[in-house]
Automatic annotation (TrEMBL):
This is Holocytochrome c-type synthase. Residues 1-49 are annotated as: Disordered. It is found in: Mitochondrion inner membrane. Lyase that catalyzes the covalent linking of the heme group to the cytochrome C apoprotein to produce the mature functional cytochrome.
Amino acid sequence: MGSQVSAEALNTKLPEMKGNPPPECPMHNKDAKEKNELKTKPSECPVQHDNNINPYNMMPPANQQPAPDQPFPLPTNRQVSTIPRAMPDGSTEFWVYPSQQMFWNAMLRKGWRWKDDEIKEKDMEDIIKIHNANNEQAWQEVLKWEALHAKECGHPRLKSFGGKATDYSPRARFRSWLGYELPFDRHDWIVDRCGKDVRYIIDYYDGGEVDNKYQFALLDVRPAVDSLENVWDRMRVMYMRYRYEIIGDKKQNKLTN
């Protein structure tokens, strides 16, 4: 669901890849019991609309057909995530990750030319794994914030998302003025909190080498400052983090003295 994994990020991790991979469909693991209670089903991502653009992820219809000059076949199977998706009719479906073939076609559409790189089948497999892990990580961070509202809504759902790689958030710009690096990508996610739309901003920073879980991004996830409730949530979390650090330091000092 982006989230999108930006071209810069993938070029850093897979030097032979160049281009602009497509937006991703976020993922979150929930237990089977909750799935059954929601009575949901997979939802295609992206989905075709009359204008050929899906307003929920700003992507055209899925293209599973091999490109004319493609050097090797790519799998078309898609992994169904367990992140609930809020539908216009109030029902819940699940976001579905793009296949390797969809990724390939999307990169071509963005201007990437595989002949300029030494692309291998294993590279596409790794990209999908990085893509999926990155989304799962982002959704887990969103759920930490949503836990503040667990009593009013026990099953938040992702409604829509979009990438804004070059539209840096105010916090990212401020950090850059202090000498820190700018994020390589940004997403805005709209979460349906039981009928209430809540916007989240996610800044993605390069965290170094890809680990054994195919994660490399450091995420800065927080509610957007566009409502008093979001501002209050951020103040609460800031206080809790500060209090935890102070208490943790005191306990550590007692143990070492």
